[in-house]
Amino acid sequence: MATTQTTDPDIAARRARVAAMRGTRSNRAIAEALGVGEATVRRDLAALDAERAAAELTPAPARVDAPRHDAPARRLLTLEVDDALADALRILTDATPGARHTLAGYCAAARAAIRTVADTVQEHQRHGRAATASAARRPEVAP
């Protein structure tokens, strides 16, 4: 079965709302909240899952300016997650439509955050601005 992303803004908006409620309500409760049938919610969830699977299988285009490394393509990073980091992962996962609070969801959120920060640093470097810890410090406010 071929999957394609929808171009109908009404369907896309409904699917975004379905994705936001996913995991917090039953399909029936989502359907009732949106004024659609439960079968519509099931189809939307299946379409969202298919789109996500297709996106995961599609290789990202290679960036021309991306640095090349001699290290293997996949490496394992073991990270101890304290309470503050766990809260940050939950916040990032909540902000991602369709994301689930699973280990895979948290890993995806962490990867996205790392990439975003790296892109920001790279952008600053391209424009000649130093991306140092001193530049990132917050100004101190007098009491």
- Rg, Å, rounded: 20 Å
Mean pLDDT: 75
Q: Provide the low-confidence segments as ranges.
A: 131-135
Order of helices and strands: HHHHHH
Write up this protein:
By secondary structure, the protein is mainly α. 6% of the residues are buried. It starts with 8 loop residues before the first helix and ends in a 7-residue tail after the last helix. The chain is globular and about 50 Å long. It has 6 helices and no strands. The protein has helices at 9-21, 27-34, 38-57, 83-94, 103-126, 133-136.
Could you give the topology of this structure?
Layout: H1 9-21, H2 27-34, H3 38-57, H4 83-94, H5 103-126, H6 133-136
How would you describe this structure in keywords?
143 residues, mainly alpha, 0% strand, 6 helices, 57% helix, globular
Short summary:
The protein has helices at residues 9-21, 27-34, 38-57, 83-94, 103-126, 133-136. It is mainly alpha-helical and 143 residues long.
